[in-house]
Amino acid sequence: MSAADASAFGVYVHWPFCLSKCPYCDFNSHVRHAAIDEERFARAFAREIATTAERTPGRTVSSIFLGGGTPSLMQPQTVGAVLDAIGRNWRVARDVEVTLEANPTSVEATRFHGYRAAGVNRVSLGVQALDDVSLKALGRMHSAREALDAVAIARSAFDRYSFDLIYARPGQTVDGWTRELRRAIAEAAEHLSLYQLTIEPETPFAGLHAAGKLVIPDDTNARALYDVTQEICATAGLPAYEISNHARPGAECRHNLVYWRGDEYAGVGPGAHGRIDVGGTRRATATEKRPETWLMRVEQLGHGVVIDDALTHEERADEYLLMGLRLREGIDPERYRTLAGRALDQDRIELLRNEGAITVDGDGRLRVTQEGFPVLDAVVADLAA
């Protein structure tokens, strides 16, 4: 991968609706039993895009990500309307990456060719598991067969596709995960996102876990599952380029690299976050989370922004450290010094090097090692202190 592209500018669009709420999920997603007025939401997206573009003129959009929620519940014409609004308000790079997150149910998969015609050129499928017992336990509404069929449709509709799996699930063994992962790699063209199951506060899984009714692998077994994940993917030509993301060289998700490299991105839609440069200052933005309230705010004010904070130099540097060290390419300590107004502590760097948690390469980049990634939070906290 090349170094960070200073001109990278992403647009994240949040579609907040799901058919059901997964018990492990703490994302801003909502279930509505009445029909969604997609035309009204599309108009609101377009209005918020226009307002955001007024604050960020002259940008060239390098990546667009339609996330959620479940964006594949949108009709293709709604997706097309959103993409058209982005194109009206910013320049769009000729090789722009346009990703849509999708559930692999048969109904949603039938829309894939419509999304392709609307301008989507990459799809990310929330497969999560390849056996029906685990899928049911995770609250997913598709079967393993449906998931694999959806992957096949994605393969026919898009040159680029990815899918997610969750591991370190209750009762999961290294042998079982090895078989599942190898099966997944056989279906994956270029990219896999592989996440360890975490218990997020205020989710149904958190309540079950606290009551002892949901037992996940302990630290030793979770580490074994992590290690075998790295080994199998690397051997198959899909090394980790980020702590949970694996890709063939050149096939990394360009939009997510915008986040991890500390570049600029606009957040549009209910609960969307952004990092935009206004008047030479990096601003952290967030919009109203509740969809209907966001909708009314946009119709009245032109935007749904409820947080619009100027980041200090120290805050920008800390974000760069926190996000950049997730990447295999690591960070440039000189960029950190420019952002923070101070250099990283060399004594702490040497200590972490001696412990085998980080390396400093000949080009000066600081990288977390394979041994350091499982304790990444501690490494970041030590360097940021």
State the end-to-end distance.
Answer: 29 Å
Fill in the CATH topology of the largest domain.
TIM Barrel
Largest beta sheet: strand ordering: 9-10-8-7-6-5-4-1-11
CATH architecture of the largest domain: Alpha-Beta Barrel
Helix-strand category: alpha/beta
Q: What would CATH call the homologous superfamily of the largest domain? A: Aldolase class I
Overall pLDDT level? 93
Major sheet attributes:
9 strands, mixed
List the total number of helices.
Answer: 15
State the low-pLDDT regions, or none: 1-5
Principal-axis shape equals: globular
Number of domains: 2
Strands, total number: 16
Radius of gyration: 21 Å
Helicity, in percent? Answer: 40-55%
Estimate what percentage of residues fall within beta strands: 15-25%
Quaternary state of the chains: single chain
Compact overview of the structure:
By secondary structure, the chain is α/β, with parallel strands linked by helices. It is built from 15 helices and 16 strands. The protein has two domains: 9-259, Alpha-Beta Barrel (TIM Barrel); 329-384, no CATH class.
Task: Give a written overview of the molecule.
The protein is an alpha/beta fold and 385 residues long. The chain has 2 domains: 9-259, Aldolase class I (TIM Barrel, Alpha-Beta Barrel), CATH 3.20.20; 329-384, no CATH class. Helices cover 41% and strands 23% of the residues. It has 15 helices and 16 strands. The protein has helices spanning 38-55, 76-89, 106-109, 112-118, 132-137, 144-157, 174-187, 204-210, 219-235, 254-260, 291-301, 313-324, 333-340, 346-354, 376-384; strands spanning 9-15, 17-18, 30-31, 60-68, 91-102, 122-128, 160-167, 191-196, 240-242, 245-247, 264-268, 273-278, 281-287, 305-310, 358-360, 366-368. The strands form 4 sheets. Strands 9-10-8-7-6-5-4-1-11 form a 9-stranded mixed beta sheet, with helices on both faces. It has a 3-stranded antiparallel beta sheet with strand order 12-13-14, with no helix packed on it. Helix 1 runs parallel beside helix 2 (76-89) and helix 7 (174-187) runs parallel beside helix 9. The protein is globular, with a radius of gyration of 21 Å.
